[in-house]
Amino acid sequence: MNEDYNFKNNISKHNVLIICLSIHHGNTMKIARVISKKLNADLKKPSEVKKDDLNDYDLIGFASGIYNGKHHADLFKLIKEFEMQKNKKAFIFSTASVKYIKMHTALKKELTAKGFDVIDEFMCRGFMNYSFIKYFFGGINKNRPNKKDLLRAEEFAADIKDKLSI
Ligand SMILES: Cc1cc2nc3c(=O)[nH]c(=O)nc-3n(C[C@H](O)[C@H](O)[C@H](O)COP(=O)(O)O)c2cc1C
């Protein structure tokens, strides 16, 4: 999975960065790969981002699986370290065992408080076999994200491109 990170698009014209953490099954990384390809975005883990890196980008995507009702704590930690932004555009995505968009609220609040303008968000189901789920069902959402999810993620990125004329 490491080769997915540090993926630097030499042809990037739009200055897009995606900060993604995908620790459970790599589910969110599957989505991140599709979106970063469509947007010619650079893709990094939170631990690889320095607060000044943001100056190089016009649009930042924040993503992870949902763990206990919200995005991964490392994203919140990183955002706290950032300087106040002046309407820097951002978008959010995630995978989770249920598609409940309110689980984005905490991250959206954190970003808005830091001066980000959150322009869009995307969510889909991801395979989960954590805790008792493993013993009773062998996991839920098998093979998710699937082809349809990846297509929807690509459409989401295409919408952003249209919206921002990039
Ligand atoms: C510790 C843990 C907590 C989780 N909590 C939630 C949750 O609160 N709500 C939910 O819908 N899914 C929850 N999930 C399922 C994950 O969000 C889902 O499997 C996601 O696709 C994992 O993404 P990743 O493979 O990119 O890490 C949890 C999974 C783990 C391992």
Automatic annotation (TrEMBL):
Superkingdom of the organism of origin: Bacteria
GO BP annotations listed: heme biosynthetic process
GO molecular-function terms, A-Z: FMN binding; menaquinone-dependent protoporphyrinogen oxidase activity
Pfam family, one: Flavodoxin_5
Domain Flavodoxin, first and last residues per copy: 19-124
InterPro entries the UniProt entry points to: Flavodoxin_dom, Flavoprotein-like_sf, Protoporphyrinogen_IX_DH
Record PANTHER family: PROTOPORPHYRINOGEN IX DEHYDROGENASE [MENAQUINONE] (PTHR38030), PROTOPORPHYRINOGEN IX DEHYDROGENASE [QUINONE] (PTHR38030:SF2)
UniProt-recorded name of the protein: Flavodoxin
Source organism per UniProt: Halanaerobium saccharolyticum
